[in-house]
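It is worth pausing here to work through a concrete case rather than discussing structure prediction in the abstract. The textbook approach is simple: state the sequence, then state the predicted structure, then interpret. We follow exactly that order.
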Amino acid sequence: LRAVPMAPGTLAGGARLAGGRLAVLRTPPGAHVLTGSEIALMGPRGEGEQSVLRRVDGSRQDALDFDGRQVAAQVRGCRRVLYVREPVGGRPGRAPAGRHCRLRLAAPLALDGHGLRVRLACDTFGAFCGASGVSLRRGGRGGPVIARLRQGAVRFSPFTLRLPRRVRRRLAGTKVTLVARVVDGSSGVATTSRAVTARVVP
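Step two, the predicted structure:
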């Protein structure tokens, strides 16, 4: 048996040996296993290590393949899984980022006794999702801010954006824009900021 060294904090996934070289699926310290893993190529004793494909899914040991000339891996995206391949020997490749989740509503924005009820349609990796960086604006995305969640707060769908009674009375039937980052419930991965405009149901 031969031991291949790994940096402290690295999460090791699967490995494939071909053509006298070893391809290792691993997640560097601080990266997310679903979207920030990489495939590293090295000699059978760990020598000559180089990263050949980054930003892949490292959650399963069989989520890679290697035939000595190219590597293949799985990439998570919104409502899709991509399979990518990269020739070895050149500059490290970067798999397409899975950051294009849309911000969609599963039900109309509706007022309740505490504020605005928000139910998101989850286009993310898991079965449930949430939102962070939430702000509610009157009219379009550039309109005045009516309410916002504190920085770093995450609300999982469905949730209520609390509003004072006087604000609730004025919102019924008006057009508002919800701006938020979609957060995947199973992984905690957040997408880039998105917006959706809708009319508030009384």
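Step three, interpretation. The mean pLDDT is 83. The chain is about 5% helix and 50% strand.
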